[in-house]
Amino acid sequence: MRFSRSFFERPAELVARELLGAKLHRVIGKHHLVGRIVETEAYDQTEAACHGYRGITERTAPLFGHAGMSYVYFTYGMHFCFNVVTGAHGHGAAVLIRALEPLDDVEHMRTLRPKAKHDRDLLSGPAKLCQAFSIARNENLIDLIADDSLYLTTGRLHQGETVQVTTRIGITQARELPWRFFIAESPFVSKGKPS
């Protein structure tokens, strides 16, 4: 089942936690890739690590748009990162999808990310999952509620799974916020160290 718009029209830190267990779908021609969300991070314009902290620019405009849209950005001159816009229209906030558990059409994911030696490393980081799901600039500003090529469906934690919370990974500002959420028992979580 797909999410309602109202699910995303809430603070990023709430959405980030509740997206754990949900599924990301990517349809590329005859391929239907599916991954289960096992790690997320929240970002909000009120804190300096968020791209929206300094206001609206051409790059950050999607952050201030409608909840449930994609925000894909290019970083370090080589990687794409995939986010879901959250909160009220005009307020810059999003959830970074950091890691997925590969579920369906895993063989095609492997062809898109041939450097992965094991399936546990296939989607265990924001750049890795963008490579394996062929998410790049063209996937910016997609309505993840209504689109048929890139979308999210509801899910839940499995019995015995727990949520762990830490500070975020790879940032230098607003490092103290406990806005990284992941399924503690999942082997597919990224290997990054909290700030």
Q: Would you spell out the secondary-structure blueprint of this structure?
A:
Blueprint (H helix, E strand, L loop, with lengths): L4 H4 L3 H7 L4 E6 L2 E14 L25 E6 L3 E7 L7 E12 L1 H7 L13 H7 L17 E4 L9 E4 L13 E4 L12
Antiparallel strand pairs: 1-2, 1-6, 2-5, 2-8, 3-4, 4-5, 7-8
| H-E order | HHEEEEEHHEEE
Regions with little confidence, pLDDT below 50 for 5+ residues: none
What is the terminal separation in angstroms? 35 Å
Largest sheet: 8 strands, antiparallel
Radius of gyration: 15 Å
What kind of oligomer do you see?
single chain
Could you describe the 3D structure shown?
With 195 residues, the protein is α+β, with helices and mostly antiparallel strands. It is 13% helix and 29% strand. The chain is built from 4 helices and 8 strands, in the order H-H-E-E-E-E-E-H-H-E-E-E. It has helices at 5-8, 12-18, 106-112, 126-132; strands spanning 23-28, 31-44, 70-75, 79-85, 93-104, 150-153, 163-166, 180-183. A hairpin with a 2-residue loop joins strand 1 (23-28) and strand 2. The protein is globular, with a radius of gyration of 15 Å. The mean pLDDT is 96.
Summarize the structure.
The chain has 195 residues and is an alpha+beta fold. The protein is built from four helices and eight strands; from the N terminus they run ααβββββααβββ.
